[in-house]
Amino acid sequence: MRARNAKMSDQLRLDAEEQSLREQAASLDDGLRLQRQQFNIVMHREADAPLVIPDTITLREMPTYAWTDIETADPVLQKSIADGKAFDAQERLADKMGKPTFSVGLQYMLNGKVKRPVMENMNGMDMIMPMVTVSLPIYRRKKRQNSTSSAPMRLTAAARTPSRANTSASSNVLLTPGARWNCMTRRWKYSTTRFN
Question: pTM of the predicted model, to two decimals?
Fold first, then answer.
């Protein structure tokens, strides 16, 4: 009787393990189907499209880009260059605002006839007024401070531009050999001028 019960319990245990393995296989199949659908969606294909893996994969030559194309396409680098130009213009403006200015002008005024004019002999006559102005800067110290305050910002922008160019070049390894050489010489010049 015990032998029969032992065989029966072994049989039930084997059936339970077999059922567990079938459930695991079904779960793995569902997971594989879900991952296949997610991959197809990421690749912008139909969710149930089959995945085909070829036996051999042909290697294509990687495209190379000229450094000028990368420089013109980098918005941070273009902003650095524009900031440097803006600070140059600000320094020139502050310098010119500290100098005397002369201006010559002409103003033309149309006057209509009125019933009670202030000056009767001018009623209805148009006026031409030539003007000459001279302004002498009194606050030269303030103008000089504006000029000297833009110089450090201009130098900062000038130092930031090659730094950003080097970062952009080092992050983009698909450069032509000539562009790589130009990048290396630019880095060398920058490091020698910065630390000497």
Answer: 0.39
